């Protein structure tokens, strides 16, 4: 007897079956495609004992024996293996199994399957059509359209390849492919079968899952897809979507699972399945929404299908799978099944309750909760364990085990590959884990359960975890935009509607407050106005309050504004109260507390900022060191994620804001404008009196007065649009600009000297005059005069003037090499255009648009804020009374108008 493989691999010319006109070469691919995924039913209908169609070794339906046969049904093609096979090992697909069992030829097996699937092959003389009626004439074009789509569906299905678990859509959903295929463009193809079992259309899903389309002209009405077959007495779960069906099939391997493709189709599919199997339990596994509820009610009435809904409103069963894993999904399904079977009666026969169709659990994860005696009797193995043909148990290789474990923890665990850090699902958001202990424990627990009864070694676990990480099997979801995460859901900023957070739609942080659209904050508003009011100034404090409001709004919205807020004031002025209010607003778990020194000098300190929304720096004061890390944090640069005793694995961008509090102006050794451009300085000018503090405590303090109004504060700040937020921050009030300039002068010697000793000279490229608009930078020429160090040409060279000023102020100067660029940088920060320029005749480098301030110039020594655009720039040098020659000792005194000197005198 030749093997089935020989029969299936025949190369003889096309033959025609004498009875029905099957052309093997031409029609085999179409029949094979239609049979895929239906072989358990086909074999049963064609006389193969269904009790022998098991994955475990058992008797062969063709040649007997006890343990020689295995029906593995790989890729839903009905594949099998028999170790004896009538004298030699035999294997093949479903067609060859029919040949092996019944002794049919391959052509006869093909014909029998085609007849059962209603796929009559092409005949050279088609049967005449029935007489046409008026109704049939109207329906003929639609029927022809459906027929063409069905033929195209079969062709596309035959050309497609079986999907793998690494398809982007399946990975995002966390499910196995089951019967899905993939076309040449990467789209997922799902078959749509009609009541007769023939393929009538396809549903196509793009790789990103954003587009789901049926085949043009295809008939979807009454269509379904059998994702997982089962024994006749097992329940049949009917789902709205394919991902839901796959999740349920993975959690309940003994159930039959059918996808109806929409909620509206569930009643019709349920009625069809009820007609096919009147005694089989049916379950309508709908989404927890209005459409699902209506569909479940109709399915219950039409076909006695028990309703199964996820516990949380807005969820589908795939959402629940990703949030709670397969173990949680199985428990929820079993609980919902049990509860509904007790509360519903059979509408088709009210005297008899609905059959629950419960079956013994075969999920290996469920064995942990069983008694030891039952565990010993349970034959199911862990998902990472398989049996060889000889019956030996083996652990799945790490590369395959990684996919299994990733599917089991999907929805509970994700990996930020860029930062090399894990994220855990916390019901409201994905919580970043700077310490991987919790994530590693979760993975170890899953591997431990799924390797039962063999167990595992540490190297096996490390290999599985490493492959999950390197292959990116657990990517985080795409973070949604224009939403704010609250403790009770995500609030859409455009519609102000709230929706349940799910593992597929959530952020990596959440506010610890519930969204209450009716809450207000009158006390917070009043306190802010009083805290920033300055009796010494005539301006309205409301502008400063609006700036603080905009900053808080950017903090909650997660906007990248590249500024840091500095609160300055005496003790008891309220700056600490504002800090604690901001920390309570986003929550302490979303807040990192540090110092400038630690950020700059401790390389592990930036790891504190990963996943945080607020970085608070207390008592910043005079650090007098470099602030490169602070500039990187506020500038949106990548930061190293380094942990002690752990090799650096990645980097991240800090997505929050920085808030500082200090009693004096922030100072550093950085002379550039990089820090100054990002500074917003708000002074809290008044301290609370003892009477005010006593009244404050009597009313409950900060928590009882201010923090109780945080839900209202959130509503108030969210009223600002993104454009309004950016406008308030980019154009701060005059008092904030003044404080910024004072802060810049306090920490930057070049800026302080520039505003104290120089004046901008506006120019244009057309009227530029070297004699009026240009001043040489010069160099360092020092000498001793009566034991004192003095500099030459302090009244003519910019750098000499700067050195003399630094000596007078006892401050450290910058080098001449950096001086010119820093001057231009600072001036541009203050809103004035300067540029390097080489003198046309002397070839000396200077700066155009700048001159030294003259001794007798009006107000030269009183007000350092001329650079804010008010006075002095338009003055004429002729109106200034000449002063005596400077004594070159580096004081504030400068010579008379140096521009009236000749070039020889200047150089």
Automatic annotation (TrEMBL):
Keywords: ATP-binding, DNA replication, DNA-directed RNA polymerase, Nucleotide-binding, Nucleotidyltransferase, Primosome, Transcription, Transferase. Residues 136-159, 898-907 have a biased composition (Basic and acidic residues). SUPFAM superfamilies: DNA primase core, P-loop containing nucleoside triphosphate hydrolases, Zinc beta-ribbon. One of its GO terms (molecular function) is zinc ion binding. It comes from the Bacteria. Residues 1-14, 343-362 have a biased composition (Polar residues). GO terms for cellular component: DNA-directed RNA polymerase complex; primosome complex. GO terms for biological process: DNA replication, synthesis of primer. Residues 1-25, 121-165, 336-380, 882-907 are annotated as: Disordered. InterPro entries: DNA_primase_Znf_CHC2 (IPR036977), Helicase_SF3_DNA-vir (IPR014015), NrS-1_pol-like_helicase (IPR045455), P-loop_NTPase (IPR027417), Phage/plasmid_primase_P4_C (IPR014818), Phage_T7_Gp4_N (IPR013237), TOPRIM_dom (IPR006171). The keyword Nucleotide-binding applies. Residues 543-697 form the SF3 helicase domain. This is SF3 helicase domain-containing protein.
């Amino acid at each position: 007897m030749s093997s089935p493989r020989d029969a299936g691999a025949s190369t003889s010319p096309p033959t025609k079956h004498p009875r029905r006109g099957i052309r093997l070469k031409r029609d085999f691919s179409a029949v094979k495609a239609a049979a895929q995924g239906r072989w358990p039913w086909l074999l049963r209908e064609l006389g193969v004992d269904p009790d022998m169609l098991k994955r475990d070794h058992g008797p062969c339906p063709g040649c007997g024996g006890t343990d020689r046969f295995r029906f593995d049904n790989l890729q839903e093609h009905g594949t099998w293996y028999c170790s004896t096979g009538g004298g030699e090992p035999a294997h093949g697909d479903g067609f060859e199994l029919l040949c092996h069992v019944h002794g049919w030829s391959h052509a006869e097996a093909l014909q029998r399957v085609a007849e059962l699937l209603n796929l009559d092959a092409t005949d050279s003389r088609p049967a005449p059509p029935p007489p046409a009626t008026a109704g049939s004439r109207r329906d003929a074009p639609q029927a022809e359209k459906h027929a063409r789509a069905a033929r195209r569906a079969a062709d596309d299905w035959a050309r497609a390849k079986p999907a793998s678990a690494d398809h982007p859509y399946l990975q995002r959903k966390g499910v196995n492919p089951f019967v899905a295929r993939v076309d040449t463009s990467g789209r997922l193809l799902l078959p749509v079968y009609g009541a007769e079992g023939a393929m009538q259309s396809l549903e196509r899903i793009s790789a990103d899952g954003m587009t789901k389309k049926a085949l043009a002209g295809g008939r979807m009405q009454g269509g379904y897809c059998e994702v997982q077959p089962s024994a006749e007495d097992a329940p049949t779960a009917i789902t709205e979507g394919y991902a839901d069906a796959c999740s349920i099939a993975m959690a309940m391997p003994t159930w039959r699972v059918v996808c109806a493709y929409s909620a509206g189709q569930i009643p019709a599919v349920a009625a069809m399945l009820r007609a096919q199997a009147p005694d089989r339990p049916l379950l309508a596994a709908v989404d927890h929404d209005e459409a699902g509820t209506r569909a479940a009610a109709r399915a219950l009435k039409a076909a006695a299908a028990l309703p199964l809904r996820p516990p949380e409103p807005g969820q589908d069963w795939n959402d629940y799978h990703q949030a709670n894993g397969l173990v949680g999904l199985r428990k929820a399904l079993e609980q919902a099944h049990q509860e509904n079977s007790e509360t519903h009666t059979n509408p088709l026969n009210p005297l008899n309750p609905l059959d629950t169709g419960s079956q013994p659990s075969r999920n290996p994860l469920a064995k942990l909760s069983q008694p030891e005696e039952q565990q010993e009797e349970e034959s199911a193995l862990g998902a990472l364990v398989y049996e060889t043909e000889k019956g030996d148990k083996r652990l799945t290789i790490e590369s395959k085990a990684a996919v299994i474990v990733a599917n089991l923890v999907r929805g509970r665990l994700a990996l930020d590959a860029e930062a090399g850090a894990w994220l855990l699902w916390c019901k409201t958001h994905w919580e970043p884990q700077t310490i991987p202990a919790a994530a590693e424990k979760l993975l170890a627990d899953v591997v431990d359960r799924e390797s039962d009864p063999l167990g595992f070694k540490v190297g096996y676990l490390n290999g599985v975890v490493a492959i999950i990480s390197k292959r990116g099997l657990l990517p985080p979801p795409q973070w949604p935009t224009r939403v704010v995460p609250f403790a009770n859901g995500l609030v859409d900023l455009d519609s102000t509607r709230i929706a349940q957070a799910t593992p597929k739609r959530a952020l990596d942080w959440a506010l610890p407050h519930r969204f209450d659209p009716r809450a207000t904050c009158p006390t917070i508003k009043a306190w802010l106005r009083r805290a920033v009011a300055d009796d010494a100034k005539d301006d309205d404090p409301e502008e400063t309050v609006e700036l603080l409001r905009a900053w808080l709004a950017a903090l909650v919205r997660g906007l990248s504004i590249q500024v840091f807020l500095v609160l300055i004031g005496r003790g008891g002025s309220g700056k600490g109260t504002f800090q604690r209010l901001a920390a309570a607003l986003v929550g302490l778990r979303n807040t990192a507390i540090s110092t400038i020194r630690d950020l700059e000098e401790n390389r592990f300190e930036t790891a504190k900022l990963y996943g945080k929304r607020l970085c608070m720096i207390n008592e910043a004061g005079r650090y007098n060191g470099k602030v490169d890390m602070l500039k990187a944090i506020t500038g949106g640069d990548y930061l190293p994620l380094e942990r002690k005793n752990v090799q650096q694995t990645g980097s991240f961008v800090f997505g929050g804001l920085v808030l500082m509090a200090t009693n004096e102006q922030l100072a550093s050794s950085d002379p550039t404008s990089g820090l100054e451009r990002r500074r917003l300085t708000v002074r809290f000018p008044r301290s609370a009196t003892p009477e005010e503090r006593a009244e404050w405590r009597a009313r409950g303090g900060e928590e009882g007065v201010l923090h109780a109004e945080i839900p209202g504060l959130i509503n108030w700040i969210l009223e600002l649009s993104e454009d309004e937020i950016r406008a308030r921050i980019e154009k701060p009030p005059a008092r904030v600009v003044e404080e910024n300039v004072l802060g810049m002068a306090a920490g930057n010697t070049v800026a302080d000297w520039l505003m104290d000793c120089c004046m901008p000279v506006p120019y244009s490229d057309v009227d530029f005059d070297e004699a009026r608009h240009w001043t040489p930078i010069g160099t360092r020429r020092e000498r001793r005069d009566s034991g004192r160090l003095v500099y030459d040409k302090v009244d003519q060279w910019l750098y000499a003037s700067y050195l003399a000023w630094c000596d007078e102020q006892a401050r450290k100067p910058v080098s001449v090499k950096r001086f010119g660029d820093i001057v231009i940088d600072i001036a541009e920060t203050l809103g004035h255009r300067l540029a390097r320029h080489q003198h046309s005749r002397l070839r000396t480098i200077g700066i155009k648009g700048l001159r030294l301030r003259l001794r007798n110039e009006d107000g030269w020594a009183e007000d350092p804020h001329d650079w804010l655009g008010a006075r002095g720039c338009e003055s004429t040098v002729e109106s200034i009374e000449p002063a005596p020659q400077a004594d070159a000792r580096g004081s504030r005194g400068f010579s008379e108008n140096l521009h009236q000197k000749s070039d020889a005198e200047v150089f």
